[in-house]
Write a structure and sequence with these properties.
Layout lengths: L29 E7 L5 E6 L5 E3 L13 H12 L4 H8 L3 H24 L6
Antiparallel strand pairs: 1-2, 2-3
Length: 125
């Protein structure tokens, strides 16, 4: 995963569904405010509108992850390349239940991103 301190705030948005600025990227309502996690490597994002904060990992496969970033990426790479859960378990040493959980998280994130991008796609004549 890229160095979190080098990430731009523009692609983040408020995850609070009750916030009037929920889901608005680059709206100026969110900013980085502090650090979280072991070794303070995870940025916290704060919404000026609703006063809620959340991890930069919120809504991603990395959210609440206990595995190293490299191991999560390795698991997802194996799954993307067509390895099954059992094969990924043998290759990475990560339990099958954990692999299934990451698969579900990554799938949900992919669906949400697809829906967001399709919503802004130009329509065909």
């Amino acid at each position: 995963m890229a160095d979190p301190s080098s990430q731009s705030i523009d692609h983040f948005f408020c995850h609070n569904s009750d916030c009037p600025d929920h889901g608005k990227r680059g709206h100026g309502n969110v900013y980085f405010r502090g650090w979280s996690g072991r070794n303070k490597r995870i940025r916290m994002v704060y919404c000026r509108t609703c006063k809620k904060s959340y991890s930069q990992r919120k809504g991603t496969a990395f959210e609440r992850s206990q595995l190293s970033d490299d191991l999560v990426v390795s698991v997802l790479d194996h799954l993307r390349e067509g390895c099954g859960v059992r094969a990924t378990n043998r290759l990475t040493g990560v339990s099958r239940d954990t692999i299934s959980r990451y698969l579900g998280l990554a799938g949900e994130q992919s669906k949400n991103l697809h829906d967001e991008l399709v919503a802004f796609s130009p329509s065909d004549p």
